């Protein structure tokens, strides 16, 4: 009886523990969330998802972009700064106006550079919960991020909240800059799929290059995903990185408004690994594809689900107002809150699985289908979004 009481007491103390396990990623401090199936590293700066790996993967290969490692392996200086991965752009996504720059507002918003504090950490039953929060002083907002993992699942559940400290309604720009990188992103091999059809290439001046790389897509052209018009060829399948990379381009897709949840996935069929996201189209109406494909094959690709079609200053997003009949920003009410809920998963796939045609969340399961091969991956997903 005393032993049972001691075990119960110790379990309660563990459940109320307020300190998540510490982690270090490329000399940046963070926290580790592990559930026996996946291991997620969350940075204390920006609440960035720097790495996600499968516990049973001997390579411990993360699909997320690590520009520090890539630059080191290429013998070059890292031109992108921090750990990369999946970072949040709020409040602001893209460049800032000259006036905002003079006032000190950084590109991609304040949050990805801000120190986050642990507000809550606990394991209750099979579910581990971590809440990180920060104040954004320049935009006068509070931003919090709650991340949950459930023992034995391949899924990470993310809930975010943005609160205004100001007394007027304001337009908000918010992007989830999920980015994959080499070696998971392999030229001519790794494919990206999403529940979208209507798409457009980014407008640019003839003298502009995306990330200093030449374009292979024309400026400001509508197309049907994934067959984009080419500058030098009739069509380019933008699902896959070019087999001989040396280009930089940017496209946007309107996510299917007829679906309750929309998806975007990245699959390496050779390594049989799949990363995917499920989210609500009314919260993130657009998915941007930032395609950074230098010829040294240290590739990066953004799968950036966002409130706006392109990463531009707030003024441009508001002036555009809508594209394809869909909004290009969200409203944040005076002294009010808005939020989002989504999940992402990382899993093995069966031999021959080559394309994601559908992803659904049904009855506590994520169902991922390849219609051509008639194969299906089913993952347990016990929490709602």
Mind explaining what this structure looks like?
The structure is a single chain. The chain is mainly β. The chain has a single domain (2-348), classed as Beta-galactosidase, Chain A, domain 5 (Distorted Sandwich), CATH 2.70.98.10. It contains 4 helices and 29 strands. It has helices at residues 2-15, 67-74, 98-102, 314-320; strands at 22-25, 28-34, 38-43, 49-54, 87-90, 117-124, 127-136, 141-150, 155-164, 170-172, 174-177, 179-181, 191-194, 196-201, 222-224, 227-229, 235-237, 247-255, 262-268, 273-279, 286-293, 300-306, 322-323, 326-327, 330-332, 337-348, 358-362, 365-370, 375-380. Strands 5, 11, 12, 14, 15, 18, 21 and 22 form an 8-stranded antiparallel β-sheet that branches. The chain has an 8-stranded antiparallel β-sheet with strand order 6-7-8-9-26-20-19-13, with no helix packed on it. It starts with a helix and ends in a 5-residue tail after the last strand.
Short description:
It contains four helices and 29 strands. The protein is mainly beta and 385 residues long. A hairpin with a 2-residue loop joins strand 27 and strand 28.
Strands, helices and their partners?
Blueprint: H1 2-15, E1 22-25, E2 28-34, E3 38-43, E4 49-54, H2 67-74, E5 87-90, H3 98-102, E6 117-124, E7 127-136, E8 141-150, E9 155-164, E10 170-172, E11 174-177, E12 179-181, E13 191-194, E14 196-201, E15 222-224, E16 227-229, E17 235-237, E18 247-255, E19 262-268, E20 273-279, E21 286-293, E22 300-306, H4 314-320, E23 322-323, E24 326-327, E25 330-332, E26 337-348, E27 358-362, E28 365-370, E29 375-380
Antiparallel strand pairs: 1-2, 2-3, 3-4, 5-11, 6-7, 7-8, 8-9, 9-26, 10-25, 11-22, 12-22, 13-19, 14-15, 14-18, 16-17, 18-21, 19-20, 20-26, 21-22, 23-24, 27-28, 28-29
